[in-house]
Amino acid sequence: MNRPFLVAQISDLHLKAGQRLTYGVVDTLGALRRAVDHLNASYPRPDIVVISGDLVDFGRADEYAVLHPELARLQMPCYLVPGNHDNRQHLLDAFGDHRYLPASADGPLDWVVDDYPVRLIGLDSTIPDAHGGQLLDSQLQWLDEQLALQPNVPTLLILHHPPFISGIGHMDREPFVNAAALEKIIARHPQVERLLCGHLHRPMQRRFGGSVSCVCPGTSHQIVLDLQEAAPAHFNLEPAGYLLHRWDEQQGLVSHNGVFGDYPGPYPFYDAHGLID
């Protein structure tokens, strides 16, 4: 490929069935449709889309039945990992056409895709029926082995739970259980360019094992930026967003924060006389 490779990341769709509003307030279906339209109309268009968990709101089969045709509207391949709101079996039942996914929901839904200039590794960080995240010892061993197979290929890890404390009180009460063990593995594999996460519904970044853990905003609602230990579980309707990761073999990976929706502009900085005064 003689041009940059573009990876769009969206997260925390929280889709419901029956035209229901999430938490009685948020039109998550409408938000997802706007996100898909935006990505399809982008120029240059992203080469792929990765979705970092909480695909639906309660993990129900009818919610995935709504989600599948909406994601099928994307004019590029998309890759999914589950979040704490998802159900592994119902996800697999609905997305059997996503061949990269495991055939069985007997364990975590981890996967690898080697089809692009950057390697993709999806990690299922969910703990069934819990809010927080972890990777099992078996998953950590598998990840270490997978990374050792392709030490010279730039790699993106996609997982739902960020492996760090955010400072937002209610989100930190059930943290990533074994983040230190994951960080040791990442430190051994410098080809890991990013850990692409969701869950926190806000853009944020942290150094992690010599790489960067990068959190995507939600496609609809955002968690309130409240850095108090006693921060309550509140959300708001700040502009919905996404991340756009640009890989260039010479320049490396650059991650951009974008927003969905229409805003005034664009306006020029210059006219015929120079910088506009």
Q: What is the percent of helical residues?
A: 10-25%
In one word, what is the shape? globular
N-to-C order of helices and strands:
EHEHEHEEHEHHEEEEEEEEE
CA(first)-CA(last) distance: 42 Å
SS-derived structural category? alpha/beta
* Low-confidence blocks of residues: none
| Mean pLDDT score | 97
Biggest sheet character: 6 strands, mixed
Count the E strands: 15
Determine the strand fraction and express it as a percent band: 15-25%
**Main β-sheet, spatial strand arrangement:** 4-5-6-7-9-8
Mind telling me the C-alpha Rg? Answer: 19 Å
Number of H/I helices: 6
Annotation keywords:
alpha/beta, 277 residues, five-stranded mixed sheet, 6 helices
Task: Explain what you see.
The protein is an alpha/beta fold. 21% of the residues lie in helices and 24% in strands. The strands form four sheets. A six-stranded mixed sheet has the order 4-5-6-7-9-8. Strands 3-2-1-12-13 form a five-stranded mixed sheet, with no helix packed on it. Strands 10-11 form a two-stranded antiparallel ribbon. Strand 1, helix 1 and strand 2 form a beta-alpha-beta unit. Helix 2 packs across helix 3. The model has no long low-confidence stretch (mean pLDDT 97). Belongs to the cyclic nucleotide phosphodiesterase class-III family. This is Phosphodiesterase. It comes from Pseudomonas yamanorum. Keywords: Hydrolase, Iron, Metal-binding.
Quick take:
With 277 residues, the chain is of the alpha/beta class. 21% of the residues lie in helices and 24% in strands.
Show the helix and strand layout.
Elements: E1 5-10, H1 28-41, E2 48-52, H2 61-72, E3 78-81, H3 88-94, E4 111-113, E5 119-122, H4 137-149, E6 155-158, H5 169-172, H6 179-187, E7 192-197, E8 204-208, E9 211-215, E10 222-223, E11 235-236, E12 241-248, E13 252-259, E14 270-271, E15 274-275
Parallel strand pairs: 1-2, 2-3, 5-6, 6-7, 7-9
Antiparallel strand pairs: 1-12, 4-5, 8-9, 10-11, 12-13, 14-15
Helix pairs in contact: 2-3
